[in-house]
């Protein structure tokens, strides 16, 4: 009965579903952090990348604008790197970015290799095997343009996110977490969106159309950046074990936190 009610509510109110998905996604990220410290944030980044690749091609409409599931799941990566930056310093956040980049390459290579396997031909499973093969090829037959655009956008925007986060933190003397969290994410998401729009869409559609697609996605990314602010304030105050507080010299630790 409850599931039927929720199904009907979300079917008729996609915007409520969207905000609920963001809240659940961020809640899982801080739960992983609560349970496993920085290793949990590494896991959150890997999970988000896996889900973005699996569900990214799924298109939907929110507020009358077309977007993909990948926007929601990919945006939570910025939350994880910002929390790593805040709690453990620039070196840890940069390491997480490079782990995510390596994972992205592995995902693309291994999924692409799986497409070379022909579906089974045994009479009792041939129909199912063929339909599953076709579905997999539809979702994951990555073009070189997509691979280059997604990897380039991720690497450049994430490295920029870590850099600008610490520039703002230094200039504000560790105050105003909301400012560095939002500004770093919004700026880096803009870079990510522009790079992806130019590399992946420009040439498939004209430049104006490519930027229109990019702007629609960026609108959603801006909202997500603002929604994650209370989550990062909550997670910053948690004690997750002394072994998880070891970072680069000068990090803010269990004492001396600033707002």
Characterise the protein shown here.
- The protein is mainly alpha-helical and about 260 residues long.
- It has a single domain (about 1-115, about 140-240), classed as Orthogonal Bundle (Arp2/3 complex 21 kDa subunit ARPC3), CATH 1.10.1760.
- About 75% of the residues lie in helices and about 5% in strands.
- The protein contains ten helices and two strands, in the order αααββααααααα.
- It has helices spanning about 1-10, 15-35, 40-55, 70-90, 90-115, 125-140, 145-170, 175-200, 205-225, 230-235, and strands spanning about 60, 65-70.
- Strands 1-2 form a two-stranded antiparallel sheet.
- Helix 2 (about 15-35) packs parallel to helix 4 (about 70-90), helix 4 crosses helix 8 and helix 8 packs antiparallel against helix 9 (about 205-225).
- It is globular and about 65 Å long.
- The termini are far apart.
Please give the share of residues in helix.
over 70%
**CATH topology tier name:** Arp2/3 complex 21 kDa subunit ARPC3
Q: How far from one another are the termini?
A: 44 Å
Major sheet characteristics: 2 strands, antiparallel
Number of separate domains: 1
């Amino acid at each position: 009965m409850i599931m039927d009610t929720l199904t009907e509510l979300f079917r008729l109110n996609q915007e409520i579903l969207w905000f609920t998905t963001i809240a659940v996604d961020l809640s899982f990220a801080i739960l992983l952090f609560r349970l496993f410290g920085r290793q949990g944030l590494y896991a959150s980044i890997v999970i988000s990348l896996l889900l973005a690749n699996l569900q990214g091609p799924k298109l939907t409409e929110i507020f009358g604008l077309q977007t993909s599931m990948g926007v929601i799941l990919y945006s939570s990566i910025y939350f994880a790197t910002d929390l790593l930056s805040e709690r453990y310093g620039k070196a840890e956040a940069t390491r997480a970015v490079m782990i995510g980049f390596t994972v992205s390459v592995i995902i693309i290579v291994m999924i692409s290799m799986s497409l070379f396997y022909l579906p089974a031909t045994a009479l009792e499973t041939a129909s199912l095997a063929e339909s599953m093969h076709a579905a997999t090829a539809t979702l994951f037959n990555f073009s070189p343009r997509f691979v280059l655009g997604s990897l380039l956008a991720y690497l450049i925007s994430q490295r920029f996110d870590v850099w600008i986060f610490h520039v703002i933190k230094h200039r504000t003397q560790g105050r105003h977490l909301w400012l560095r969290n939002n500004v770093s994410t919004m700026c880096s998401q803009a870079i990510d969106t522009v790079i992806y729009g130019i590399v992946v869409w420009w040439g498939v559609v004209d430049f104006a159309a490519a930027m229109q697609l990019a702007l629609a996605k960026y609108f959603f990314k801006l909202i997500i950046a603002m929604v994650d602010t209370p989550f990062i304030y909550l997670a910053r105050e948690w004690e997750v074990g002394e072994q998880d507080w070891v970072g680069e010299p000068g990090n803010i630790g269990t004492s001396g936190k600033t707002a």
